[in-house]
Write a sequence for this structure.
């Protein structure tokens, strides 16, 4: 049992009248919100679970739960990060959050969905409401002399995923930004219900294509705990190598986008060339450019075994990546036109980051030490692989970019070291009992990993037959999207693409 | 100013040296296929074919492949193909992703704002058999149910080379 499984669980659900007090106490200890979600018990009652990240110097995830049948107390007053989770519960289960500051539909749009149908309820008879307009989404309005709105999206100019951004402006500065997402809501949680653990893995690896390995690892973390599978050491090495290659290419691409959006095309293209190189390497190493289906229950697919040829190819790409990133770093730190553009823009204060329970790059750029590889170590992290914690206090685009570059270098280092120490080929890639047929077991577990964007959280509960009863996934983007609404305040609209790209959050993972 | 179409200003199509590792059919293909594609685009569309992409609910790997088409390895603009910001400028509507309920109206709006004549093509298995998300409550099924789809590009995701190849097949038929 790895450390990230250790859940400091209060056992029985606590009384709902004690919830606010308990949450306030937990917050006082300095933990942050990992996620809130509901589970249908099937007898008309619902369990609402609250997960909190570990305290300093501990890897224990805290958990609370309450029972509810019609409504539940909102904790958004204490933890503003809870807002979206509570809205999600209202959509999916029809439970009403009391005293919620900003209650409106989240994933199911009133423009096409009947608000009385809640798809994650067990007693939903699968009848899909007729496609017609049931209501109107209430946007926030800013009033005053000379205030005007700029609605952007859902379809954007360019090759980007859909999302709606509504700016309220007065002159140049942005007064307010409201983000409305979930255009791409695919209903993945419902889809996975009733599937076997390995069937659902295929869906899970396609939640957010560019973080496929990271997200699948979180899923595997959880499901392997339920099934009691011990992963062979060689497979652990390969898993970490794949995850770090993914981190590297994500960072390379995002640095490229930052150059692109500040109008520095030659450097951007250099990064895109490197990105394509790494994607081709992925295809060679894991037989898929985005590593879909490269990981399997219990280990890795035999096609992603790393032999001597692959080691050579990886080393070659890492070398050129190191050189190109060095140049990029030089430009970012030394070219005044670059630093001028991104310094101080898109600032997210530490306090805001704390209140919104941010994770990943966004948290680390705002001075929060959050990295699941360190806080809730999994696979080889924490022992064989030591990750250093890089943080900046500034919280601006420059800080986020610098962290990306540093992490890319670190990933290169990690991969090189692991390649040097990769256990003999010929060792198992999947444990023997797992190769013959996936074991069946019922229970629940959580899994946490650090994807290139931040913490990915899975809660999986399997039934007697071993099939998934409830699957909850929380994407790092889901936590971090609201922060852009604060990062852009007071800035000019032309900063928005840069702020957005400096975080480069996923729409697909967010919308599920 | 009208630039005469002479040998001189035909952009010579270069690709990066073929793969550094493993065998690859892609790189060579792109040079040949791209050249052919350019010829058909020149002839039929007067040297420019504008594509408007709409993501109707993908996992973003399809988008990543499409945006890489503009990177130096492929540089699809040299073949006269450009991804445009406005549907009003587009000849082709390219749809990726599995057409969610929430994206249904936006996709229609884009289609309706495109001037005639227009073509619709789809890319990615999400628009085909959709083995992963097909049964969901919030999926409306492939775009072909509502729109006249001229071609579907297979793959999960279709690789950039395959997209260029398919565009060539499409323009050849016109
Ligand atoms: S076809 Fe595959 S890569 Fe494309 S959006 Fe669908 S799942 Fe993602």
């Amino acid at each position: 049992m790895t450390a990230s499984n250790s859940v400091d669980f209060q056992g029985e659900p606590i009384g709902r009248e004690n919830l606010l007090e308990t949450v306030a106490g937990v917050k006082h200890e300095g933990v942050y919100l990992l996620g809130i979600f509901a589970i249908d018990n099937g007898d008309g009652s619902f369990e609402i679970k609250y997960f909190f990240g570990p305290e300093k110097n501990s890897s224990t995830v805290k958990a609370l739960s309450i029972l509810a049948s019609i409504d539940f107390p909102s904790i958004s007053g204490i933890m503003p990060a809870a807002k979206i989770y509570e809205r999600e519960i209202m959509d999916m289960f029809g439970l009403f959050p009391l005293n919620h500051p900003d209650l409106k539909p989240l994933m199911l749009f009133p423009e096409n969905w009947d608000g009385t149908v809640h798809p994650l309820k067990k007693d939903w008879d699968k009848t899909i409401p007729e496609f017609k307009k049931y209501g109107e989404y209430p946007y926030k309005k800013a009033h005053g002399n000379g205030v005007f709105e700029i609605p952007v999206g859902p379809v954007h100019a360019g090759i980007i995923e859909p999302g709606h951004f509504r700016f309220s402006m007065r002159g140049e500065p942005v007064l307010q930004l409201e983000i409305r997402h979930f255009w791409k809501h695919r209903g993945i949680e419902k889809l996975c219900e009733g599937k076997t653990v390995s069937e659902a893995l295929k869906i899970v690896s396609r939640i957010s294509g560019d973080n496929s390995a990271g997200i699948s690892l979180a899923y595997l973390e959880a499901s392997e705990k339920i099934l009691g599978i011990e992963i062979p050491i060689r497979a652990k090495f390969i898993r970490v190598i794949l995850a770090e290659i993914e981190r590297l290419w994500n960072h390379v691409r995002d640095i490229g986008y930052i150059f692109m959006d500040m109008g520095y095309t030659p450097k951007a293209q250099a990064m895109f060339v490197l990105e394509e190189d790494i994607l081709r390497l992925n295809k060679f190493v894991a037989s898929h450019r985005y590593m879909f289906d490269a990981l399997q229950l219990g280990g890795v697919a035999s096609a992603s075994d790393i032999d001597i040829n692959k080691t050579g190819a990886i080393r070659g790409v890492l070398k050129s990546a190191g050189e190109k990133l060095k140049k990029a770093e030089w430009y970012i730190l030394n070219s005044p036109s670059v630093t001028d553009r991104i310094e101080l823009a898109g600032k997210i204060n530490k306090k805001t980051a704390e209140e919104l329970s941010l994770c990943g790059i966004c948290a680390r750029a705002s001075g929060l030490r959050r990295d699941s590889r360190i806080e809730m170590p999994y696979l080889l992290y924490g022992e064989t692989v030591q990750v250093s914690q890089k943080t900046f206090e500034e919280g601006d685009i420059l800080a986020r970019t610098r962290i990306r570059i540093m992490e890319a270098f670190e990933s290169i280092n990690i991969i090189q070291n692991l390649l040097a120490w990769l256990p003999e080929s010929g060792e198992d890639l999947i444990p023997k009992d797992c190769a013959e047929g996936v074991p069946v077991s019922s229970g629940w577990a959580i899994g946490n990993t650090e994807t290139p964007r931040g913490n990915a959280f899975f809660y999986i509960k399997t039934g007697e037959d071993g099939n998934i009863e409830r699957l909850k996934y929380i994407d790092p983007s889901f936590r971090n999207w609201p922060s852009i609404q604060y990062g852009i305040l007071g800035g000019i609209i032309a900063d928005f693409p840069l702020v957005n790209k400096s975080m480069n959050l996923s729409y697909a993972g967010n919308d599920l | 100013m009208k630039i005469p179409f002479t040998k001189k200003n035909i952009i010579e199509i270069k690709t990066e040296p073929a793969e550094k590792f493993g065998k690859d059919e892609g790189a060579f293909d792109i040079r040949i296929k791209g050249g052919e594609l350019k010829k058909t685009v020149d002839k039929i569309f007067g040297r420019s074919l504008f594509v408007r992409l709409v993501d109707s609910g993908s996992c973003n790997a399809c988008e990543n492949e499409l945006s890489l088409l503009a990177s130096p390895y492929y540089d699809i603009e040299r073949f006269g193909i450009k991804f445009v910001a406005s549907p009003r400028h587009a000849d082709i509507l390219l749809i990726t992703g599995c057409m969610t309920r929430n994206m249904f109206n936006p996709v229609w709006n884009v289609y309706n704002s495109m001037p005639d004549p227009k073509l619709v093509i789809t890319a990615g298995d999400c628009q085909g058999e959709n083995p992963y998300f097909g049964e969901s409550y919030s999926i409306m099924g492939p775009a072909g149910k509502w729109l006249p789809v001229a071609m579907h590009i297979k793959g999960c995701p279709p690789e950039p080379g395959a997209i260029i190849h398919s565009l060539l097949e499409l323009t050849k038929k016109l």
About this structure: The first helix of chain A runs from residue 19 to 28. Residues 183 and 448 of chain A are 26 Å apart (CA to CA). The two ends of chain A are 29 Å apart (CA to CA). Residues 188-511 of chain A form a domain with the Cytochrome-c3 Hydrogenase; chain B fold (CATH 1.10.645.10).
